[in-house]
Specification:
It is a single chain. The chain is mostly helical and 277 residues long. The protein has 3 domains: 82 residues, no CATH class; 106 residues, no CATH class; 67 residues, no CATH class. 56% of the residues lie in helices and 4% in strands. The two termini are 45 Å apart. The relative contact order is 0.08. The C terminus is likely disordered.
């Protein structure tokens, strides 16, 4: 008898466990001992005499494929594989519907956390998809990818729109979560550069070059710390009291907005996705 690699029955994986274990028992010619409590009428006498032995083998397989938390329940079932199978079926089918509802609610509210990295975010999505599958609710890769895109933070708005536009125009489905993850990772890497798109060295040079101009030009300041609540532009200069119409933060003009670097990076990543998908 071959060794199976079926995940043991735990508190929330009954659906997949039952499918795999049934297939395994069928391959080992043991399913009939689970399906029937006694040898069906018409069973050849020689086979009927071996029925207790077959029941014992089927029972052993069920016991070896459950987590320890289920052993107390099995202890009172008199080594009856038929009774054990129906016990698990009735016990889990009643709670499975409620679990599906709970997991679907989580899916509907699935969002990327403000400080969460792409890899962590997609990993959470995959885990939720697996939990739903174990609860008997199949979510396709396309559906899961749509939820992943919908839950992204505003930093990924451009690349998200680019991917969605590409899908809408081509009629293709997002069949690969990994493809989405790779594009988001590329966008994340570029978004992470933010100010380093010009680099700290560039900004330091800008401060030095404009040091002699301190006091010249209304509202300008150079070579000093950024005031609380204000953000320097990509040229390293703070424009006191000036609001940027790109990001609506104070301290720089729109043409020197650091957020424009983010938008450009996200847009470029979206174009690469459209070309490669």
């Amino acid at each position: 008898m071959g060794k199976s690699k079926i995940e043991k029955l735990g508190p929330d994986n009954y659906v997949t466990w039952a499918v795999y274990l049934k297939a395994y028992l069928q391959s080992e010619k043991l399913w009939q001992y689970v399906e029937h409590k006694e040898a069906p009428e018409g069973t050849p006498a020689a086979e009927a005499r071996k029925w207790p032995e077959g029941q014992q083998q089927a029972w052993s397989q069920i016991v070896m494929h459950v987590e320890p938390l289920h052993l107390p329940a099995l202890a009172i079932l008199n080594e009856d594989p038929h009774a054990a199978w129906h016990y698990f079926k009735s016990r889990h089918s009643s709670s499975n519907g409620a679990r599906q509802v709970f997991l679907m609610q989580q899916l509907g509210q699935f969002k990327m956390q403000p400080d969460e990295q792409v890899q962590q975010y997609v990993s959470r999505a995959r885990h939720l998809q697996q939990q739903l599958q174990q609860a008997g609710q199949t979510i396709s890769s396309h559906q899961m990818s749509c939820h992943i895109l919908a839950g992204l933070t505003a930093d990924f708005e451009v690349v998200k729109n680019s991917i969605q536009t590409h899908v809408s125009m081509t009629g293709q489905q997002l069949s690969s979560i990994s493809a989405i993850e790779q594009q988001l990772l590329m966008a994340e890497a570029q978004l992470g550069q933010d100010m380093s798109g010009f680099g700290k060295e560039h900004i330091a040079k800008a401060h030095t070059a404009r040091g002699a101009m301190q006091g010249r030009g209304r509202g300008r300041s150079s070579g000093r710390a950024v005031p609380l609540g204000q953000v320097a532009g990509t040229d390293g200069i703070v424009h006191d009291g000036v609001e940027c119409y790109q990001c609506h933060r104070f301290g720089h003009r729109a043409r020197q907005c650091p957020s424009r670097q983010k938008a450009a990076a996200a847009y470029a990543a979206g174009l690469r996705f459209a070309a490669a998908y």
